Amino acid sequence: MPKNILNRAHSALTKQHKIAIAGVAALGTAAIALSAVPSNADTVTTGSPATAAQVAGSTTLKNVKGTVTDQLAPQTVKLDTLAAKKKAADAAAAAKQRAEAAKKKAAAAAAAKKAAQDRAAKEAASRSTQRIDMQPVAAKTYANNLDGWIRQALDIMHSKGIPGSYNGLYRNIIRESSGNPMAINNWDINAANGIPSKGLLQVIQPTFNAYHVSGTSWNIYDPVANITAAANYAAHRYGSMDNVNSAY
């Protein structure tokens, strides 16, 4: 009998202990759940401690995620602003470099142009100092007589490539007209044909017109024009007036 009483007492104590232990565990779970609920929560939903803890944890995670997102948003805007500023600064730097390069190029071109102008000015000055002073040459004058007429005619003949010498011209002039520029032959065959010989070298008009030398007068009585036309005719027919020794 006493043995059975002790067994029942032991059994009863054991059951109470289990209940106490279970109560303590439940209180601990509730305490944990309450600590997980935000401080601003006014009430705690009744139910199993595990379910309340899960709800509190989910709400806390959402709040943390929202807080982090809200904190990152200004940072993103700030980074975008910095990137835009850097891009603008890079563009401005590139534009500045291009402007400086263009400025340097323009300066180099201006310097090259000035150098070329300076060289041209120096060369012009050098040519000016080296240039021989040209003295005006007075026009050659000839005496208004037989000597002057022959000399002027010879200068024109030589410039035109017409052969002849002073002596050849002088000899034929004296024979033909005695040095009279107004001489005219009214008795030979030419006169009979209506084209008398005229001037210092007694030239007929058709011959004078055909062998007239440019730059001289068209007046058959002009001494220089008469001599040069006659010499030109003699050069074509006889080779030179020097080869004429009689009427020609």
The fraction of residues assigned to DSSP E strands is under 5%
Distance between the termini: 202 Å
Low-confidence segments, ≥5 residues, pLDDT <50?
A: 1-13, 23-27, 30-50
Major sheet summary line = none
Shape: rod-shaped
Helix content: 55-70%
Mean pLDDT over the residues: 77
Order of helices and strands: HHHHHHH
Question: Radius of gyration, Cα only, in angstroms?
Answer: 69 Å
Number of beta-strand segments: 0
What's the topology here?
Elements: H1 2-36, H2 49-130, H3 146-160, H4 166-177, H5 189-192, H6 205-210, H7 223-238
Helix pairs in contact: 1-2, 3-7
Structure description:
By secondary structure, the chain is mostly helical. Among the domains are: 66 residues; 98 residues, no CATH class. 69% of the residues lie in helices and 0% in strands. It is built from 7 helices and no strands. Helix 1 runs parallel beside helix 2 and helix 3 crosses helix 7. The longest helix has 82 residues. The N terminus is likely disordered.
Brief overview, please?
The protein contains 7 helices and no strands. The chain is an all-alpha fold and 248 residues long.
Name the features:
rod-shaped, 248 residues, disordered N terminus, 69% helix, 7 helices, mainly alpha
